[in-house]
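INTERNAL AUDIT FORM
Audit reference: QA-55
Scope: verify that the stored structure record matches its stored sequence.
Auditor: D.O.
Record contents follow.
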Amino acid sequence: MESNDPKVLIRVAQAVYPVCELGNESRRRLAEHGRLDLLKPNHPIVASSDTAWLTFLIRGEVVLLSDKGEREVVHANSPRARLPLFRVHPPGLYAEASVASMIVRFPRTLLQTLLQAEHGTDGAGGEIVMMDPEHDGPLYQSIYKAFQREELELPTLPDIALRIREAIRDPAVGIKDVAKMVLADPVLAARLIHVANSAAYRRDKPVTTVYQAVTRLGLSAAQDIAISLALKHLFKSDAPLLQQRMQALYNHSSQIASLAYVLARHSHGFNAERALLAGLLHDIGVIPILTYAARHGNLQHDAAELDKTIAGLRRITCHLVLSRLGFEDDLITAAEQAEDWMRNNHAAPDYADLLVVAQLHSHLGTPRMQHLPRIDTTPAYRKLDLGEFDPHNGLAILHEAHTVSSAIHQLLH
């Protein structure tokens, strides 16, 4: 039995790899040619007969079996389900539904054509470029397999941050309630007051209590700032080598967060505090990669392989961490697409566009900029309407607001 619900197909296309690498229009076009199939228990799918499709499990459970006796269970909504059931199609490999299940199929040839058109590949090989541990280093292979088996150690938010986030989602909760929660953590309380008195929010009269701080910031801003301040806890380790990498990661994230904050204040339709949070979260998926590498002794060996592994896996690990922590789709998209320099998915700018510009600005004057596009050539720059840009000095608005961005950066430390 098969069906073609366009809404379901488009929603799946936004979540699975490598389909999600496409822009909105290309995903819509691919979804028009996709199909939904219901599988009865014990229904088999033979890999060698499925070569025309990329097939994804969206409901139920299937078992991958090979004639070599290999066995892999795939559950819907697991990280493994975001990847195609079959990445290779050898004889003797098949999938069998354990329970009533549903799969989505997208035509492989059309996907390849769309990827080539968007990413400028020559298509000579005719292969869809996607994560494949068979062709990467041992660290990549190991972490990739741990991701598939859901064995990566994921960071968790401090209880105070979770309580504040849940409370603010309740319309019955007011400023006094949130202030009481913040007071339960003296360090967070002091830092929130410090933020309210900073150059970014300063008024004639300084605040002296948490209640005054939350009142000045507003409930929504206080939530995002409180979570942002609590995030520093996630970038800590007792192991010296791991702490060194974690500190470098946090330094970068906090720099991007402070730049994104200023950009949001100068751009229509953005919340500056949410931009701050987006900046701090954009590389959170690197934490489980570093933690895994440290546990298996890979930090002190090949830094180049580690960096390559991070580049290849950060997108799916960011999605995994942020979705597990319950963050909203706009923040997940921002993290996933923060390094898609020429992204042009929407007519209206979003938080991912802020992060693209913030990151490119942070690399000005560094060797890495030789391999990156100029800010004023990106769709994000044009959509955000950021004004004057100088190739050597960057965006004028960021220089004019240097006091504010520096104050935010210092507060995060």
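Auditor finding: record pair retrieved intact. The domain at 2-130 is CATH 2.60.120.10 (Jelly Rolls).
Action required: none
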